Amino acid sequence: MSRFTHDPDHFRAAAPLTIPLFGDQQFGLGCFQVFLCTNLRYELDIHRRSDERVVIKNFQGADISLDAHPSAMSILEKIEEKGGALRAGFDCSIVDTGLQYSGLDYAVAEAVCWTAAFLAMAESPTLETTFEPARTAFNACGGIPEQKGIWAATELGGLVALKGFDLESVQAYGNSLDGFIVTRTSLIPEKSIDASSKDAAEAVNQLIEGTDVQSFPSAPTDILLGRLSGISEANAMIGYAHTMIRDLCAESMNLFSSKNIEPFEFARLLDEQENMRGEYLGLTTDKMTRMAERARKAGALACSGYGNDGAIVIYAPRAQKSVAQTIESEGLVGIAVDSGKGVCIEDI
Questions:
Q1: 109/340 Cα distance (integer angstroms)
Q2: Contact 181, 327 (CB under 8 A)
Q3: Which residues of the chain have pLDDT under 70?
Q4: Domain spanning 2-175+340-347, CATH architecture
Q5: Is 181-337 assigned to CATH 3.30.70.890?
Q6: Which of 326, 344, 250, 267 minimizes the C-alpha distance to 301?
Q7: Domain residue spans in the chain?
Q8: How confident is the model over 148-166, as pLDDT tens digits?
Q9: Angle formed by the axes of helices 132-140 and 107-121, to 10°?
């Protein structure tokens, strides 16, 4: 737990790259997501200015003033919570942690980091938004001051479970789960997670229609699967996949909350999820499949895609080096990541 007085003159905000292990495509259905907070971090070193300007130093290799930069609006739209920072006047120096040069999509980590920093700067911190990174940062920073002039920044680390948009349901597990490699192919799946979620919502609505089940996350699996014969074949396939992935996510929650995580059981869950993603939801490409096969031959226990941009997480607890070399032989960048800290703000 980190504390500092309100409106400090010098502080640092940091957020990790978070890898979604389970439930990535089901967030809109109110299901759990399970993330790994990694040791790849995005950090800002923040100093108060004597004027009212906000300057971002080392932004894509240059210093920019937010109130004068042509792309300021697009930056502000992405981070949403901007008012407090613009009123206050700060120099925000990007700390080189290597994340921005990893080739991975760190947009969410960046957005969480900026939002956490700007919330801390605000005169009256409030947040009314459905923007996922902003809500995550808001929750991680305590939501509101514990008392006037005091902020508490919860350090979420390791495995983090987040249920839907419920700010009260964030839970961090103390278990560390190391041995991961992440990479990204240049080919993007034809179907995006957003499109898959919309299709799933339609399928799920049909599944629960005519029953006394009102909630997909809490619906008994046998009731949902029993309804498959009454809906279209396409929706039946989608409904089946999302129902089974939901159950896998629930299994992962039980696994992660135990004292010891069994690597092969975790690998089984991750592989089953990827099979569902590829076979029923179209969230894969031939190149992603070939990459996963080569990674397994090099010693990986499991592989799964995540996000919308062809990213893959590979679980190789005893073969990170050989798997990374295999990925690089394909012309891709393989980044070994371990568990790390969550969002935090520290007075300096």
A1: 13
A2: yes
A3: 1-8, 27, 52, 59-61, 66-88, 100-103, 105, 118-155, 164-170, 186-197, 210, 308
A4: 2-Layer Sandwich (3.30)
A5: yes
A6: 267
A7: 2-175+340-347, 181-337
A8: 333 344 567 888 887 765 5
A9: 50
